[in-house]
Amino acid sequence: MLRVNRIAWQIAFWAWSWDAFDFFTVSVTVTSLADTFDKKNSDITWGITLVLMLRSVGAITFGIASDRYGRKWPFIVNNILFIVLELATGFCQTYQQFLACRALFGIAMGGLYGNVAATALEDCPQQARGMISGMLQQGYAFGYLLATAFGRALVNTTPHGWRPLFWFGACPPVIFIIVRYFLPETHAYRSREQVRKGLT
After folding, report:
1. 3-state secondary structure 20-55
2. What gap in Å lies between CA 52 and CA 54, rounded to an integer?
């Protein structure tokens, strides 16, 4: 059980970090995006604003799904959305397409944190939950560092400009999906399900 918990925490941390990476891909490519879509930088940052505005929609939607159907499948669906939306952003040809992709990404982004937090903390010893939750939250800052580093490596270093950063962002969630598929539900969730089924 301890081995499974450790792997579950690691996949939760990396998924949350990559969620942050995907969010900050716009922040590190604002000028390039503005040039591509012939817009001002302030127009491009609306893509960031839309993500933040719609995070609550994703949090509520995927939160309900996680409590009803378990942690595994909402997590997998969430990461499939990340793959699709990061690829789609990389292929956007118009400003309107870009805003639509980022708005949908906001729903996906909001849906992930509750799931990974539950996965990381439900089976964690109570005396360690404060420390573990703090370490998990730092995945957001780590994601920003990754976006900055890969931005330097991938943005405007090929004929495709900013697009490779988004295409690359779609790759790691494939690994997260595969690993999570083979992990069981948390012990705490399974215990609650047994109690619920026993009462119905």
Report:
1. HHHHHHHHCCHHHHHHHHCCCHHHHCHHHHHHHHHH
2. 6
Q: Does residue 83 contact residue 170 with C-beta atoms inside 8 Å?
A: yes
The CA distance from 69 to 5, in Å, is 20
Q: Quickly tell me which residue has 């969630």 as its tokens.
A: 173
DSSP per-residue letters across 67-129 = HHH-SHHHHHHHHHHHHHHHHHHHT--SHHHHHHHHHHHHHHHHHHHHHHHHHHHTTS-GGGH
- Residue-wise pLDDT tens digits, 149-198: 999 999 999 999 999 999 999 999 999 999 999 988 888 888 888 887 77
